[in-house]
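>> received
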Amino acid sequence: MGENVAFDGQATTTGLPAVHHLPDKGTTDNPLRVGLIGLGSMGRHHARVIRATEGMELVAVADPGGDQFGAAGELELLPDVAALIDAGLDAAVVAVPTAYHESIALALAEAGVPTMVEKPIAHSVEAGRRVADAFASRGLVGAVGYVERCNPALRALRERLDAGELGQVYQVLTRRQGPFPARISDVGVVKDLATHDIDLTAWVAGSPYRSVSAQVAHRSGRVNEDMVVASGVLANGIIVSHVVNWLTPFKERVTIVNGEKGAFVADTLTGDLTFHANGTVASTWDQVANFRGVSEGDVVRYAIAKREPLALEQERFRDAVLEMRSMRNAHSLNSLHSMSGGPGGPGSPGAGGDIVSMEDGVATLMVVEAVLASAAQQRMVDL
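>> returned
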């Protein structure tokens, strides 16, 4: 989700001109023309990173709520998504409040603009499916901004789990706590923050959710929930738990994965990954030796390269757009060869294996809604 600014939601999804792209875009000399809508707390960072990303040029920005952080710089502040599209775009980033994700994303899809939408993909699963279908049906790159997948600690964790360094994985536990962010007013803590934990848990564990159970609380006088405790089971049998709130006077972002050989602890605030190994030293203390559990072993904090996650996310989006364009160009050439008797044929559309797809965004939103339903109905919800 983006920031808390006022949008009129009047973006239309019909009658917009098709955007024509040049095949050599994405180089330093001829970068992708990128438009950004939403210049609040998250949008300002997108503006900064797009400007710093090789092969991308921020050419248009829009926000009817104004530019409180001065992110537009020398660019004209446009009033809406239609004006943004008229600027002639190769790609777009949507960082507006969740309620406006669907209408703006559909307008961009109608105009043929590859787009990354900040999380969550939309305000509801049904809206999210409409957005995902709009991009898929047109063969456009559509991504969702779950930036935690680009966090160095979680990337290193995923690589080590895939390599079998933990053995069998038993449990994934996340804690995401901190003070209330003034940028939020249209959703509660589940759609704003817990959505990160749901996405990263399924991604790290390599499995979708099977069921969830949750409790929420409203302690600050707002309409939406500000605290949630959720637990669940993934399809592969791993148990999970999430503690998320806006009412903690310190900031915490921790993911713990317990398994056969010990536990990984990923701190996504610092980008650190630590491994706590199960003890291997034999004990002569009978009461300890007879306990069928684990003991404390070596502790290792890994030295890993650390880049700003948002910068990596933008690069992956850029690469996905360029990959799709390359595939389309190759398909056009193959079609010409086929008509002249040469080899070739149509390929399957699809690009950007490193981005979070809109289909993944819909799957995460399904779990988010199941968490809210569980809390409202006081029962476990199957997925």
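>> The domain at 152-270+272-305+367-382 is CATH 3.30.360.10 (Dihydrodipicolinate Reductase; domain 2).
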